[in-house]
Design a protein that fits this description.
The protein has helices spanning 23-37, 49-56, 60-72, 101-107, 126-132, 169-176, 179-185, 205-210, and strands at residues 76-79, 83-86, 91-95, 112-123, 139-149, 152-162, 191-202, 218-228, 233-242, 246-250. The protein is an alpha+beta fold and 252 residues long. A hairpin with a 3-residue loop joins strand 1 and strand 2 (83-86).
């Protein structure tokens, strides 16, 4: 979805003075109404704080407080160096035997992308060993990735794969930006979801930074195990999804 600067907040004359309703609250209400009415569309970039302050006839602290409230509600997202954007509507994210991030995002008419944050070989802990069906301490490849839709982070995932079978998978992911395509380059033409569990927790500082969130926002925690066409366990994942950016749909 293209980013637009066409968004215009309500005129400052719409702020009511001296009636007990704080200016920051009126700004929040006005911008929420614009989002609900479609005058501010998903992906629109808001004017800078100084411009908003001038338009509303308030100081930057008041504008910053209003934007903080809107961010905590999941209506806007501040991105370092780029500005503040209206959040996209939640992405319907089916969870079933063949869950494919790129296909899900493309099916919603949005552009999927992926970034490899880190890659390392390590020893499997108890959680990894149980899900991959290997001995605790066995060598595994750990990839930490972010997945985005139209540039908005949708998931922060820790993925582990048994070694030596998937040695070099990190390089394939860097080339393709897709685990499905990376698998294909390594001879795994198809795979399916063996099991999934969903829980929730607040976002911590590091998670919030990676997902462009305010700390404390609710995350959906999706844990799953994938198997190849022969039933061999090939991947265990713990993925964090901002709860207001996705709607998980169970399709088992």
């Amino acid at each position: 979805m293209p980013v637009s600067d066409r968004a215009a907040p309500p005129d400052p004359a719409s702020l009511v003075r001296g009636e007990g309703v704080a200016a920051w609250r009126q700004i929040v209400d006005g911008l929420e109404a614009d989002v609900a009415a479609g005058r501010l569309a998903p992906g629109d970039r808001l004017p800078a704080e100084t411009q908003l302050a001038e338009r509303f006839g308030v100081n930057r602290h008041t504008v910053r407080r209003a934007l903080g409230v809107l961010s905590s509600r999941g209506l806007v997202r501040a991105t370092q160096g780029r500005g503040t954007f209206v959040e996209a509507r939640p992405l319907a994210y089916p969870i079933g035997p063949r869950t494919r991030f790129t296909e899900i995002v493309a099916g919603a008419g949005r552009q999927a992308s992926g970034e490899l944050i880190s890659a390392r070989e390590r020893r499997a802990d108890a959680w990894m060993a149980e899900r991959l069906g290997v001995a605790e301490g066995a060598p595994v490849l750990e990839l930490v990735t972010t997945r985005s839709a139209d540039g908005s982070p949708i998931a922060l995932a820790t993925n582990v794969f048994p070694l030596p079978r998937f040695a070099g998978l990190d390089a394939r992911f860097r080339e393709t930006g897709s685990l499905t395509r990376a698998y294909a380059l390594m001879g795994v033409g198809d795979y399916r979801r063996l099991a999934s569990t969903v829980s929730a927790r607040p976002a911590g500082g590091d998670d919030a930074a990676a997902l462009d969130l305010v700390p404390g926002r609710i995350l959906l925690v999706l844990e799953n195990v994938n198997v190849d066409a022969h039933g061999a366990r090939i991947q265990a994942t713990r993925a964090l999804f901002p709860a207001d950016r996705v709607e998980m749909v169970m399709e088992w």
